[in-house]
Amino acid sequence: MNNFSGAPVPKMIASLVHLEYLNLSKAMFDGPIPPLFENLSNLHYLDLQGWYGYHLHVDDLDWLSRIPSLKYLDMSLVDLSRATNWFHVINSLPTLEELYLDNANLPYVPSPLPPFNLTAIATLELSGNSNITSAMLRWLSNATSLEYLHLSGCGSFTMEPLQVALASLINLKGLDLSYNSLEGEILELLNNVSSRGLKQLDLTGNYLSGDMPETLQSLRHLEYLDLSGNSNVSVRMPTLLGNFTSLRDLRLLGNNLIGGEIPPIVGDFVQLEHLDLSETGITGEIPSSIGNLTNLEYLDLSWNHLTGDVPGSLGHLDGEIPSSIGNLTNLRYLGLSWNNLSGQIPTTIILSHNNMGGELTSLLDGLSTCSQGASLLFLLLDGNNLSGIIPSSMGQLSQLQELDLSSNSLEGNITEAHFSNLTSLSK
């Protein structure tokens, strides 16, 4: 990402009349986009995406209509609030395939709208614009080539114009209607999805209600489903997973899970990469079958009423241990052995057979001064990459029963001071 620190967009670019591709995105330009860009009539690709904190803007979009072969246009985060002709200009570009105008302060467009002319449009991103009207949604019902429609945070939609649009968008693969204060039965909305190839559906942060339909043919190929924040939507997780066998990303934060527990069948859906069941009110134990989800990268079960142990099958962890785990001041046992963890050891963690590095002194000094260190029973750090000497402060871990520092790169002398207080040590 380039940083031109608020400099104006260079007007000389408009002299490059043979340009077919121009990308000035996220370059932190400020000020108006030169109308002289109308000279770039051979452009197929134009990316002028702005950046937060900079006021890239246009007062009129007439110049854009003089670039007749444009296929890709991104003016996200460009202030178009004065471009009252934006809708008619965009509609005059029949070759346009991808259009990104999110968070562009699009002004209100009065009815009647012109006849639909975007016959090649495949991706339409209008999120973050509050003046998207019901008339526009009905107008979109003509966009039969549309594959990806993003309308997140566009105000308060009503159900009827959405139903009209969805009934006609037969090639839709991705649909984002999040944060639009949508009200009504979720079945009422999804029954109108005519596409049989929908892969991404985001309904986060609305006021939908009722049971999530599990048998609609239009949803059979879903890979991403986010219903978070719709507290009155009920989900039968076993049925949903059983019918939506392509799901890789399932987000149900704050929904009502019928049955109240995580079903053991969840372990059968090994393609899952992201699973969020936080704030769903689930109870009972975490089934051991969840350890079968070897492709899982993100799991959130927080703010529930779970009981029992965390299954040992939840392994194959990598990356670093967050230092915040040291806030668990009552922790007596943490088993993270035989994973692929790396980085420095936080001072309150006990691990074996990982790839942890650093000096043992810093770890043991931290444990000996920590209030829980004095009651530590097991210290198993074998099979890591620890270095340095074994500090005499180890002798302050007076309750230690088992100690294993083997298979590291430790050095130095071992004296009586290391063991004089370890009277409970048995192994």
Care to describe what's here?
The protein is an alpha/beta fold. The strands form 7 sheets. It has a 12-stranded parallel β-sheet, with no helix packed on it. It is built from 7 helices and 27 strands. It has 2 domains: 11-313, Ribonuclease Inhibitor (Leucine-rich repeat, LRR (right-handed beta-alpha superhelix), Alpha-Beta Horseshoe), CATH 3.80.10; 323-419, Alpha-Beta Horseshoe (Leucine-rich repeat, LRR (right-handed beta-alpha superhelix)). The chain is flat, with a radius of gyration of 29 Å. It is a single-pass type I membrane protein.
Q: How many domain modules?
A: 2
Shape: flat
Unreliably modeled segments: none
**Chain-averaged pLDDT:** 87
What is the CATH domain class of the largest domain? Answer: Alpha Beta
- Distance between the amino and carboxyl termini: 56 Å
GO cellular component, one term: plasma membrane
Protein name: LRR receptor-like serine threonine-protein kinase
Main location: membrane
Keywords: Cell membrane, Glycoprotein, Kinase, Leucine-rich repeat, Membrane, Receptor, Repeat, Signal, Transferase, Transmembrane, Transmembrane helix
List key phrases describing it.
427 residues, alpha/beta, Leucine-rich repeat, LRR (right-handed beta-alpha superhelix), 2 domains, twelve-stranded parallel beta sheet, four-stranded parallel beta sheet, 7 helices, 27 strands, 19% strand, flat
Please describe the topology of this protein.
Blueprint: E1 21-23, E2 31-32, E3 45-47, E4 56-57, E5 72-74, H1 86-90, E6 98-100, E7 123-125, H2 134-139, E8 148-150, H3 159-168, E9 174-176, E10 183-185, H4 186-190, E11 200-202, E12 207-211, E13 224-226, E14 232-235, H5 237-243, E15 249-251, E16 256-257, E17 274-276, E18 283-285, E19 298-300, E20 305-307, E21 318-319, E22 340-341, E23 357-359, H6 360-369, E24 378-380, E25 385-389, E26 402-404, E27 409-411, H7 416-419
Parallel strand pairs: 1-3, 2-4, 3-5, 5-6, 6-7, 7-8, 8-9, 9-11, 10-12, 11-13, 12-14, 13-15, 14-16, 15-17, 17-19, 18-20, 21-22, 23-25, 24-26, 25-27
